[in-house]
Amino acid sequence: MENNDVIVVKMGGIASDNLDKAFFSQLKQWQAENKKIVIVHGGGHYISKMMTLMNLKVEVKEGLRITSKKTLEITRMVLLGQVQPLITTSLQKAGLQPVGLNAGCNQLIQGDFINRKKLGYVGEVTQISNALLETLFHTDQIPVIAPLGITPQGQWLNINADEVACQVAVSLQAKKLFLLTDVPGIKKDDVWLDEVCFEQLEQFVTQKIVTGGMVPKITSAKKALVAGVQSVCINNTITNSGTTILAKVPVLATN
């Protein structure tokens, strides 16, 4: 699918507590402009909180949560039973039409293990089956997707939400991918940058202008831009673009 009217928004799970009128107004404005919207949500804060309550150790390696079988059960429970309903309920109250989705809906997110020995049940996306998403677009419904995947053998996997959002955006050849975070973009020399070229990203990581949780976002942004997404916006709101990363590189063909 090539659809320049698709906008993918990745939001953290904790953002579901802070959705405001401006957020809903922007979604409605996009729909009035015939834009199609997909939301991918995280939930790390709530997963960690639940694990602490259950006296389970929270371990992270290279930005990924080490996921045992028990941790995977908690992750599924929190994402599908707590975070996603919070978001869909908020959207519904605002007069929008959300549909909560997971990997098991029409084989939506297919995945495979990254390194089972080191990370456990942590996966990466191998394919997005976007036929269901396209069907929902026809009736102005907003897919709200949890970052989980399923292997061909039926094993559920915990997948980084930025990675899922990136792959969804690529599969739909989205016009924009918003990676929402707790800061208004990328900062250099105490200045928030409005625009960054693709070629600058590696330099920003090497020079540690970008660190911590921003690094996976940069990695996801690079993948999306190379595979055909027009621009990636890193910000703490969707009402403006924050730092926009433009695809000023040769675009690779996608199947």
UniProtKB/TrEMBL annotation:
CDD domains: AAK_NAGK-like (cd04238). It comes from the Bacteria. It is found in: Cytoplasm. Keywords: Amino-acid biosynthesis, Arginine biosynthesis, ATP-binding, Cytoplasm, Kinase, Nucleotide-binding, Transferase. Its EC number is 2.7.2.8. The record marks K10, K217 as: Transition state stabilizer. Pfam families: AA_kinase. Pathway: Amino-acid biosynthesis; L-arginine biosynthesis; N(2)-acetyl-L-ornithine from L-glutamate: step 2/4. It is an enzyme of class 2 (transferase). Substrate binds at G43, G44, R65, N158. InterPro entries: AceGlu_kinase-like_sf, AcgluKinase_fam, ArgB, Asp/Glu/Uridylate_kinase, Glu/AcGlu_kinase. It catalyses: N-acetyl-L-glutamate + ATP = N-acetyl-L-glutamyl 5-phosphate + ADP. Residues 6-234 form the Aspartate/glutamate/uridylate kinase domain. One of its GO terms (molecular function) is acetylglutamate kinase activity. Catalyzes the ATP-dependent phosphorylation of N-acetyl-L-glutamate. NCBIfam families: argB. Belongs to the acetylglutamate kinase family. ArgB subfamily. This is Acetylglutamate kinase.
